[in-house]
Design brief:
The chain is an all-alpha fold and 277 residues long. The protein has a domain of 136 residues: Serine Threonine Protein Phosphatase 5, Tetratricopeptide repeat. It is 70% helix and 0% strand. It is built from 15 helices and no strands. The longest helix has 17 residues.
Length: 277
């Protein structure tokens, strides 16, 4: 029987899933940190493009200000021969308007059929994967990141993305394997260390989990997800006061984040006592 605390004390993978549901999953390189509960357009800072030129500039600019206008512009652009570039912008407009599953399907289909280079196709598969996470479809997110990794197998961001999808499916051993590869290439990644700590914890491997979370905090002392995880590890070790301090610090650092929301929940469980946990 699994320990109840594993599922009630909520950490980094739960924060990822919650942030995705709130529209904050487009931070490819780190565990999501949303600034408001009502997140604005869930678009990456610099979307990869299948086209350049004034039409592409206009369509991608509209995505940030008026998704409906971007969708209309993309439709006209495609009719005039915009091809992959127009279809990409149209899919992101669907995402920005909240039609997440259709956006994910269109992004994935575009990445499959496009004649663009491997890096561009992999980036759009990654966008599809993050849209699938927003749609609470981690298995499809895993499939999309696997397709992306078939194109760019050593991409650290994609390895972390796939590990995140695996973690939300509770496939923690496989998540560790992907994170090992990512950290072998780039050991200074607090996000990967936090995810691996969460995976180790769920595999009942407290010591490597503690090492990873302490290393993440050494690299980034203000990492709310790392504080969330360390608080869980302290609680499981019987250090209730240390857990409370970490969770309160996570809330102070990032009060409107998914990590803060879960820290609040964990504090409530802590106050309720062992029976609630």
């Amino acid at each position: 029987m699994a320990r109840p605390a594993r599922f009630l004390l909520l950490g980094a993978f739960a924060a990822l899933a919650l942030a995705a549901l709130l529209g904050g999953a487009w931070l490819v390189a780190s565990p999501p940190r949303i600034e408001t509960a009502e997140a604005s357009l869930p678009l990456p800072p610099e979307p990869p493009r299948f086209a350049e030129g004034p039409e592409a500039d206009r369509c991608f600019a509209l995505l940030r200000t008026d998704a409906e206008a971007a969708q209309a512009f993309a439709r006209d652009w495609e009719a005039q021969g915009g091809a992959d570039g127009a279809q990409h912008c149209a899919a992101l407009a669907l995402l920005a308007r909240g039609d997440i599953e259709r956006a994910a399907e269109q992004l994935e289909a575009l990445a499959r059929r496009s004649g663009a280079g491997k890096a561009a196709r992999a980036a759009v598969f990654a966008q599809a994967a993050q849209a699938w996470l927003m749609a609470a479809e981690p298995a499809r997110a895993f499939a999309a990141t696997t397709l992306a990794l078939s194109l760019t197998p050593d991409d650290v961001e994609l390895l972390i993305d796939r590990a995140a999808a695996l973690g939300t499916m509770e496939r923690f051993g496989e998540a560790v394997a992907d994170l090992d590869r990512a950290l072998a290439s780039d050991p200074g990644r607090p996000d990967a260390l936090v995810f691996r700590a969460a995976a180790w914890r769920n595999l009942d491997r407290a010591e490597p989990a503690r090492r990873d979370v302490e290393q993440a905090l050494a690299l980034d002392p203000g990492n709310a997800e790392a504080l969330l995880e360390r608080g869980i590890l302290r609680q499981l070790a019987g250090d209730t006061e240390g857990a409370r301090m970490d969770w309160e610090r996570a809330i102070e650092i990032a009060p409107h984040s998914a990590a803060a929301d879960l820290a609040f929940q964990n504090l409530a469980l802590n106050e309720a006592g062992p029976a609630a946990r």
